[in-house]
Automatic annotation (TrEMBL), chains A, B:
Its cofactor is Mg(2+). Its EC number is 2.7.1.4. Signal peptide: none annotated. Belongs to the ROK (NagC/XylR) family. The lineage of its organism: Bacteria, Bacillati, Bacillota, Bacilli, Bacillales. The keyword Oxidoreductase does not apply. It comes from the Bacteria. Keywords: ATP-binding, Carbohydrate metabolism, Kinase, Magnesium, Metal-binding, Nucleotide-binding, Transferase, Zinc. This is fructokinase. GO terms for molecular function: ATP binding; fructokinase activity; metal ion binding. It holds the Pfam family ROK. PANTHER family: FRUCTOKINASE (PTHR42742:SF3), TRANSCRIPTIONAL REPRESSOR MPRA (PTHR42742). It catalyses: D-fructose + ATP = D-fructose 6-phosphate + ADP + H(+).
Amino acid sequence: MGLLGAIEAGGTKFVCGIGTKDGKIKERISFPTTTPDETMAQVESFFTGQEIDAIGVGSFGPIDPIKSSPTYGCITTTPKPFWSQYNIVEFMKSKFNVPIGFDTDVNGAALGEHLWGAGQGLDSCIYVTVGTGIGAGAVVNGQMLHGLSHPEMGHIMVRRHPEDSYEGTCPYHADCLEGLAAGPAISHRWGLQGVELGKDHPAWEMEAYYLAQALMNYILILSPQKIIMGGGVMKQEQLFPLIHRELRSLLNGYVQHAAIDSDIEQYIVSPQLGDNAGLCGALALARLALDEV
Amino acid sequence: MGLLGAIEAGGTKFVCGIGTKDGKIKERISFPTTTPDETMAQVESFFTGQEIDAIGVGSFGPIDPIKSSPTYGCITTTPKPFWSQYNIVEFMKSKFNVPIGFDTDVNGAALGEHLWGAGQGLDSCIYVTVGTGIGAGAVVNGQMLHGLSHPEMGHIMVRRHPEDSYEGTCPYHADCLEGLAAGPAISHRWGLQGVELGKDHPAWEMEAYYLAQALMNYILILSPQKIIMGGGVMKQEQLFPLIHRELRSLLNGYVQHAAIDSDIEQYIVSPQLGDNAGLCGALALARLALDEV
């Protein structure tokens, strides 16, 4: 059975892997994200000589995932030094003569969960990551969501918690969702890393308030059939029941559906692919690239 | 050329029409929405004897548009007397032996604009109506957006304007978008109907603040290629430049795309089908129902 290559291109580290067409990871390697020259040389070295049919890249963003665009394949306006306007697809094509898939890490993760994880058998799902930043990808009618570009759901505006006076970390919007609820906001606000806060610290109620607001808006705008929440902050499993309760309180009976009324524990869930969600997402992008040839 | 029937089923009035498969309305009639018995008898009488190949119903909501659901075809939890749980598709099928299309009025309008109006040639667009209520429908990858159910974009949470102390009209959420920015909120807040307020009344700055926040969230979550804004409130054309300016200010350069940076007047527009957007939407639903046979 042919194998596929996968690159989870993160702002902090790159994970490269080899896997099967049904989503099983056989081999992986990880290294820090430094400069494009250095990091991509490590990527090249990992895949050189491997017998693979396609490679998928799930990348940090913003990126240009629109195939008809002149800048398709680029990481676009990142503040990360050296990576702005870097075309990762062009590099991969110059080195490997196989189809290259490319999308945001979170669109990839949504597709991976749709194919092999918590979103199997559904028409739609979203994958939300809450970690150093907040991002989300979506599958709608079985396809990854694109339009003008890709979703940037982490930067929506939210209403402030009445007891929160923290100014927010987002360089663009200060107190958008990411600015108030990503990992750095938690640690700056409370003076401790999330992992150092007790499970019953008031930080988690506030965090759930912001994340539930975001989910409310995602539900009212996209109506996904499943919401999958991963990333470092979501390792705090006490957040799930808090989010479930807060979301029901915010919606206040407006969306009447069993998924919310009685089955919310099965509606808003952890990635079924666990810590492989990102790498399997890139594998899913490779499979899609192969299917599209 | 075969003709199609269209029903724009609104909470205040029903509009029925006959049109062509390329979106031209040939004949129309309108009557107030009273009880289902009375109103649907008028619908039946209008279409009886007409030579039509399919009928589309674009309905006020919430509705159940999911074909596999046992309550498909129903208006679900409306507070409007007598209409809750009324199955409009079942009634139409019992009277007319043609395919019946059914969706929200705004999903229909998005499809109509996608086929024949401002969204032609694009993969995606959203249609937002701002009137007695606020609602929006979406076309994604050429198909109307469904998932758990249909979008309910009018009820997203927004951040309050610093000078607004109005409590909001929404019976579920008080001060969600619809509660603060639909027509009734404008008239209750200012003591005058929107049409009675001057073009430079501060009401419009506040209205633009709320609508731009909503569009920011729609863009960050759905990334539509075009935003079409109709409904009674959007007849106040001075709102468009105010919304354009406020949206750019809120996004603050985060989404870098020509549609927003330089062509925003062509990105956020009035319905190209004008006052026919709703009825043409229902016609588009009829065409879709015929295509799906």
